[in-house]
Specification:
mainly alpha; Zincin-like; 4-stranded mixed sheet; 16 helices; binds zinc ion
Length: 415
């Protein structure tokens, strides 16, 4: 394919992807019901339901504006060959091809992040604040930004350097070594995330001795879950939305509970939420998920290895000769349809896993407190209870609440 045809193909993919997402958003908005549906009577109080509909509208409108803006910007940058211009401008300052590539990505990251800041501010301090979710201050916002930049420089820069070195050193064969490096890096992060990264942003304190801790430990012991420690994280520093997760590998697993979750749920509901998470481990969802992402990464890197030294791709983006970093950008855009498809596949697997984890929690603990915990979580986060099926199929990693509640009904013991 000539470089001009490639440019048209890339712009075409950007536009098709944009209109596809817009169509789904539109369908999702259309399927919102302004009147409280009968089956939600015992979930949402009417005024909260009306609020959830306003929240959905506000978020959809915001996402419509941001994606329209970023898509227009991307198409203009492509059409005017600005990626190529940046590459040529930087080549005057860097003689080493690796530093040239790193500088290119550094500038791209910084410029796109700065452009994004007004949108982030509006989302957090206007939309989220209006609906009572935002608990963060401007000070925390900027401190987070700074720490985020530092992490990008250290981790992103470090990993980027190694990957670029592999590309320059091993040419087309680089993808096998890159796969090993990326897999090792993500394993390392999944083990040490709670220990190294999370404390940079939040305060973690061990859960105090007491009834809740005893109940969690008793459950973990009963189902033989290797629980190492339970932490409480100050999620309330940023948002009133609640969460809980596990981290760690092998025999040392840590539970992290958001303080916002503890505040709103009873002990039984908290144990039920944890039982659901234990279900993910017991049913090997975590291990299978990791295996899937390694396979996915292998395919992506292999396809990349076929395109990374194609001169026409660089020229499509406005350069006069081959450039590895321009080809990486072109590849990222060309690959969107494939990553969309794999994303849909992974969401399908994830939704099936959620049902399995719900079933595990229902049989080893109790479906009733898990149902009430999920209802509370949905109301508190004003989540949309009537998403469009097509939107769910593409974007939802969890089944809609109503499906999960019905599924758990099957495990209820007859009174
Ligand atoms: Zn889950």
């Amino acid at each position: 394919m000539s470089s001009v045809q490639l440019l048209y193909l890339i712009i075409g993919i950007v536009l098709v992807d944009y209109f596809f997402d817009q169509l789904l958003d539109f369908l999702n908005m259309k399927s919102a019901k302004s009147k409280l549906p009968e089956e939600f009577k015992d979930i949402y109080p009417p005024e909260e339901y009306a609020k959830s509909q306003r929240y959905l509208k506000a978020r959809s409108k915001f996402s419509f504006l941001t994606t329209a803006f970023s898509t227009t910007l991307t198409v203009l940058i492509l059409a005017f060959g600005l990626f190529g211009d940046l590459h040529i401008w930087l080549s005057a300052h860097f003689t080493s091809p690796m530093l040239h590539s790193l500088a290119f990505f550094g500038v791209l990251f910084l410029v796109s992040d700065i452009i994004n800041i007004p949108f982030e501010l509006y989302s957090t301090f206007v939309i989220e604040a209006k609906f009572g979710f935002n608990k963060t201050s401007l000070k925390t916002f900027w401190a987070d930004k700074l720490k985020g930049y530092l992490l990008v420089v250290i981790l992103g820069g470090g990993l980027g350097y190694v990957l670029l070195w592999l590309i320059f050193e091993w040419q087309e064969q680089f993808w096998i070594y890159a796969l090993i490096v990326i897999t090792a890096f993500s394993l390392f992060m999944s083990v040490f995330y709670t220990l190294l990264i999370l404390p940079l942003f939040n305060k973690l304190t061990p859960l105090v001795e007491g009834e809740l801790k005893d109940k969690i430990n008793a459950y973990a012991e009963r189902v033989k879950f290797p629980l190492d420690n339970i932490f409480v994280i100050d999620g309330s520093k940023r948002s009133s939305k609640a969460n809980a997760f596990f981290s760690g590998m092998g025999k040392k697993k840590k539970i992290v509970l958001y303080d916002t979750l503890i505040e709103k749920q009873s002990d039984e509901e908290l144990v039920a939420v944890l039982a659901h998470e234990v279900g993910h481990f017991k049913k090997k969802h975590v291990m299978v998920g990791m295996a899937i992402s390694v396979v996915q990464m292998a395919i992506t890197l292999y396809v990349l290895s076929l395109l990374i030294f194609n001169e026409n791709l660089s020229m499509a983006l406005g350069a006069e000769d081959l450039s590895v970093h321009l080809n990486l950008v072109a590849f990222a855009l060309l690959y969107t349809p494939i990553s969309k498809l794999t994303g849909i596949l992974i969401n399908m697997i994830s939704r099936k896993n959620e049902f399995e984890a719900d079933a595990y929690a229902s049989t080893t603990y109790n479906p009733v407190p898990l149902q009430s915990a999920l209802k509370k979580l949905s109301v508190d986060s004003l989540s949309n209870l009537t998403p469009h099926p097509a939107y769910v199929f593409v974007n939802y990693s969890h089944p809609p609440l109503l499906e999960r509640l019905k599924h758990m009904d099957k495990f209820k013991k007859p009174e």
